[in-house]
Amino acid sequence: MSTTYADYTQQAQEQTLKLIRDSQEGVVEAVRAWATALEKAVPEIPASPLYDELPSPREIVLTSFGFAEQLLHAQKEFVESVLVAAAPVIEGQAPKKASKSS
């Protein structure tokens, strides 16, 4: 059984994502240990009307990643539209696949 380009790509992507997730898990654990160790050493932030108006770190992350998701989706739609528009040229230049029955 031969490995196709799609199989190879999927395996590489899965391995890359696993490595990224594993390293992210390590960073989260290190930050958790750091935060626990320093929790009592960090002074409380005094009350301030300006502070109350600022978004929380979580709100900043949600807003930023929400925008990034929308941008990635728009880029994907754009590229798909370009491929459809270029299909007559792309498909005309593609090599013919060999028949499996030969």
Give the helix/strand class: mainly alpha
* Domain count: 2
- Strand coverage percent: under 5%
N-to-C SSE string, H for helix and E for strand: HHH
Largest sheet: none
Q: What tags apply to this protein structure?
A:
mainly alpha; 3 helices
Describe this structure in words.
75% of the residues lie in helices and 0% in strands. The protein is an all-alpha fold and 102 residues long. It folds into 2 domains: 42 residues; 49 residues. It is elongated.
Short description:
The protein is an all-alpha fold and 102 residues long. It is built from three helices and no strands. The mean pLDDT is 89.
Layout of helices and strands:
Blueprint: H1 5-38, H2 49-53, H3 57-93
